[in-house]
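Project standup — Tuesday

K.O.: blocked on the structure for the chain from last sprint. Re-posting the sequence here as requested.
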Amino acid sequence: MTTLQRFIIIVLTLSALLTGCSTQFSYRFADTYLEWQLGKYVDISGQLETDVDAAIDELHMWHARSELPRYRDLLDQLLYDLDHGSIDAQQLFDYTDEMYGLWQDIRLRVTPYAQEFLPRLSTQQRTQLITNLRERLDEEREEAQKMTAEERFERSFDRALERADDWLGRVHQEQRRMIRRWLQERDDSEALWLEYQEMWLARFAEVLAEPEAANFAEKIDALFTHPEQFRSVELQAQNQANRELAVAVLIVILQNLSPQQEQHLKNKLREYRATLTDLINVYAIPTE
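H.V.: unblocked you, prediction finished:
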């Protein structure tokens, strides 16, 4: 995953789903943050820097005007289903498919910029970019190796409880047991994910080494829009199994919420919706 792709997805998509004035402030300055993060991976200057900055501004505006309303529509549908008690496993799968579709749209939008700007990097800049991406991947691997399987599990459990408390207000003892059992039963895919990222980066380095190739744009398109091709059969199987397990657990939790938890969840979603509406209004096309 290249810098533009990584940070557009993380910063713009996830920030849009958070709430609070500070998050609105962060989203409004996401373009500046992206430019700063890009500088951590490759040094650019002159006309290239000007053009990249303008592209990030364009992506930011596109996301605000085109994508944020789609997130709000998704929240509206989720709130409707919660109010009518009609959420089942298939609907949860549909929600995750819609979120994946939104992510894929961002990848499609970023790809033409990558096709345009990557060939303009010098040999030194291309080397710097690959080196920094590899260093980041090595850091992820080293971090994973520092912890035992038990330590990784407890970290995942603590994080899951923290998220559940945030969404539900207070997690009951039986819900805690369900979350622990879910984490115990799911496949640990961390090693396979690192392997997948290594394969993607190795291929990206090969393609980037020949920016003048006639099919360079085609290869970049494949890397950006279909990175899943580098996932092993085992990883894909684990992803599907983990997804099905997570949906099964979530359905049981949703069906057994206390009245207080259900109200807390709805209030949280409404807060998200209000934040999205505020941001949508900020970036709305002015009317005369």
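K.O.: great, moving the ticket to review. The chain has a mean pLDDT of 84. DSSP finds twelve helices and no strands in the chain.
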